[in-house]
């Protein structure tokens, strides 16, 4: 009896390629933090100059969120993500040849441009490749690979540095990024109908209708509708991003200065929360999709995970601040980060649920909240530490923002979509089809004759 080999679905191959992109791009993003002390020593940089190199990434990253997503909506994610990955790959590679602080700042700026539009573009890429019931998992697994990239960067970069120096680390990572671009070009297509490998059965599973991709390119971007439907999601992402940036920037300093860990312990205990985040990212997407399949209620499936994730993070963050035992504090931190990352895949799934074919632009709007948090949170956190001499106050403020985010998440409604707004406008336009054009502006006014019980009388 012949054993039938199960065919790997095309959308799962594409998902694997996107996971690799998130993994590589995150290593390219945070490798400068690991190599920073060596770069400073070799080039004789001041603390201010090194800080300028670090911050050069954040501003174009925030600015490119909406721009990159909009370009993906208009020109397709294949072209846009190819260009963006070339930009950040070349920037990473060129950093290995930098000979001045100006060159370092320019390359970090270019990296911010390339990576800033990458995640919204990747979200747009899932619009026609992932069915609604698998979107949470897709966003969860890709972002868990991003967190995994952050966790393995220190040992990976330090291993290369030990054998060839910090420049070799950037050169090798730049080559890896460019190699991924070639793989993406061969595997990805903007829609299932452009892919030769996909079967009609899988296309039906995805729910793709022929011509959807081309129609989306010619549709005008409904900016006002997108802002109206996405601003609350952006605000929740800001509350989430505030604490995430604290973890990404201040965690090593906190563990060393406030909890007294030495350098060897620091490497392990810094990685633990990030690894907990890897699990949280994957689990959040899986649970949200499972809730949707069981209940059929999309809003409940998304909002419940947001509330539980941010609530759980808050519950473990508060006792961490007051914990006296350093190891106990690390476990509380890891649990807090685990729950925080449960929310991440849901936040990235909401642009797909709410904006549909405009998911690139909507994803950029949403992640702008994260970008703005990245510009404010690390600086504000450092300022408060300097003024108070303690980490407790800034952590308590972060906890307060989580509480506000929980309340805001309760009001997110996936049923109020941009597509539904457009359908209502088309229906209203059809009803007015027979009216003269000068009356179309008053579409909301119904022309009716009101019958009075008695005639009006003139008064003297």
TrEMBL record:
Record-linked InterPro entries: MFS, MFS_dom, MFS_Na/Anion_cotransporter, MFS_trans_sf, Sugar_P_transporter
Keywords in alphabetical order: Cell membrane, Membrane, Transmembrane, Transmembrane helix
One Pfam match: MFS_1
Domain Major facilitator superfamily (MFS) profile intervals: 14-417
Bilayer topology: Multi-pass membrane protein
Keyword Membrane among UniProt keywords: yes
Keyword Cell membrane carried by entry: yes
Localization per Swiss-Prot or TrEMBL: Cell membrane
MF term (GO), any: transmembrane transporter activity
Primary location recorded for the protein, binned into one broad class: membrane
Protein name as it appears in the record: Major facilitator superfamily (MFS) metabolite/H+ symporter
Naturally occurring in which organism (per UniProt): Paraburkholderia xenovorans (strain LB400)
């Amino acid at each position: 009896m012949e054993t039938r080999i199960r065919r790997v679905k095309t959308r799962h191959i594409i998902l694997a390629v996107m996971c690799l992109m998130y993994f590589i791009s995150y290593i390219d993003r945070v490798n400068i933090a690991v190599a920073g002390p060596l770069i400073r020593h070799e080039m004789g940089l001041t603390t201010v100059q090194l800080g300028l190199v670090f911050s050069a990434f954040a501003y174009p990253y925030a600015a490119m969120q909406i721009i990159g997503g909009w370009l993906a909506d208009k020109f397709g994610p294949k072209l846009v993500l190819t260009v963006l990955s070339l930009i950040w790959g070349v920037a990473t590679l060129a950093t290995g040849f930098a000979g001045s602080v100006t060159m370092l700042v320019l390359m970090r700026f270019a990296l911010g441009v390339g990576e800033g539009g990458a995640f919204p573009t990747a979200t747009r890429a899932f619009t026609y490749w992932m069915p609604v019931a698998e979107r949470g998992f897709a966003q969860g697994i890709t972002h868990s690979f991003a967190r995994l990239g952050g966790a393995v960067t220190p040992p990976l970069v330090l291993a290369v540095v030990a054998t060839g120096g910090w420049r070799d680390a950037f050169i090798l990572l730049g080559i890896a990024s460019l190699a991924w671009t070639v793989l993406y070009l061969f595997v990805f297509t903007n829609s299932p109908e452009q892919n030769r490998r996909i079967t009609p059965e899988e296309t039906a599973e995805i729910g793709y209708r022929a011509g959807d991709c081309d129609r989306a390119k010619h549709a005008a971007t409904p900016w006002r509708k997108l802002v109206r439907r996405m601003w609350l999601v952006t605000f929740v992402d800001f509350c989430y991003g505030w604490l995430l940036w604290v973890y990404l920037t201040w965690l090593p300093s906190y563990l060393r200065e406030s909890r007294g860990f030495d350098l060897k312990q620091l490497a392990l205990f810094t990685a633990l929360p990030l690894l907990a985040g890897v699990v949280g990212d994957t689990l959040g997407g899986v649970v949200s999709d499972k809730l949707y399949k069981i209940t059929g209620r999309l809003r409940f499936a998304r909002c419940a995970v947001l509330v539980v994730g941010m609530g759980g993070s808050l519950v473990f963050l508060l006792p961490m601040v007051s914990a006296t035992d350093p190891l106990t504090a690390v476990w509380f931190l890891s649990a807090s980060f685990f729950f925080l990352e449960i929310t991440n895949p849901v936040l990235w799934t909401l642009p797909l649920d709410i904006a549909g074919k405009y998911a690139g632009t909507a994803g950029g709007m949403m992640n702008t909240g994260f970008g703005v948090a990245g510009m404010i949170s690390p600086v504000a956190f450092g300022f408060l530490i300097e003024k108070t001499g303690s980490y407790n106050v800034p952590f308590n403020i972060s906890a307060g923002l989580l509480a506000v985010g929980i309340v805001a998440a309760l009001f997110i409604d996936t049923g109020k979509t941009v597509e539904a707004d457009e359908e209502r406008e088309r229906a209203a336009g059809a009803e007015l089809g027979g009216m003269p054009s000068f009356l179309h502006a008053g579409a909301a006014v119904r022309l009716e004759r009101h019958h009075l019980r008695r005639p009006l009388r003139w008064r003297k």
